[in-house]
What does this fold into?
Amino acid sequence: MRTPLTGQTRPVQQLPEPARFWIAFAPRNWSSAEGMWTDLASARVSGLHGKHRSPIPELDASDLDDLFYLPPVVPDLARRRDAMAVSLVEAEVPVLIQLLPGEFTRAVGAYVVYDLLEALLEGEVERLAELPRGSTAAWPLISGVTDRVDVWDEACTLLSSAGVRCLQAVTVELSPALRRKLAEDRDDEVFDALFHGESASEQQFATYAERFGFEPFMMRPLTGHSPRQIRNRRIAADLALAGEIWLRLGKAPFVGQALFRAARGAEHTHHDLAALVRDNNLTVMDWLDAQSVKVVEEIVRKGRSKLLRRLMEEYLGRRSPEPEPEPEPEPEPEPEE
It folds into this structure.
């Protein structure tokens, strides 16, 4: 039986997406950390305005049934953070804890993502060698600062030697104040890049990092309180990842949006999609277009979608782009009598 935490603060809910590390719930107004850090749920940089911090808030976790995000904390709040994570895990709520290089957590059963922002901004790339083997790390992309190939090469070499498994790029949103802060004590070239340049894309970083053997996306943690829900969410994850990569490759938006629509439907449906596939009855789901039907059938019957595999290979530069499907023609109006 679930014994969730209680309190006054309701978390923010969002659609789990591969670009946001599959986070479904995040705390509001987190200020329990010092320095700048990457908000993995929103792809923004937090902590610009100094060292103000507050205790970890009490959370009403009564309705949580998917991945909950715990951002970084100052060292003296780590035990409180870990206790909250353990309580959630015991209540069958999956938890993602964000750490900095060199930190660790005692929360057994929680998922961990290491935020590399602070080490990269401080020029302390050697700290990346402290990440544990098999870990996942977030690489924030900032024009002129963290999107340089020389930084990529040194960092990827250290992370590969440490045995890091997944290195996922995040294009972070920068406010004018943050751009000014980052430009302090840096040369004019960095200033121009911060204010007038465009950062390298996630695909460019993923293609480079793939040479070192890193996976470009964190796998979705297993979530769900029934076998049916777990199966459906696995299907939703592959559909969402296919849609994400499709759009990042600059392909026809209507196809990528159809894949995301199918992912949302799989996420929320009360039907067992695997059972519908076995009964050849999947087309009754009106939120599935023809391509998404094929993707779901392949996932159920073969464990993986051919479309997702092809897109990932193209995304990482392993194969040439394929022709995009043509839009379905509009039905011709019937002649008037």
About this structure: The longest strand covers residues 136-141. Residues 48 and 272 are 46 Å apart (CA to CA). The beta strands are 12-13, 25-26, 37-39, 44-46, 68-70, 95-99, 111-115, 136-141, 166-171. Confidence is low (pLDDT under 50) at residues 1-7.
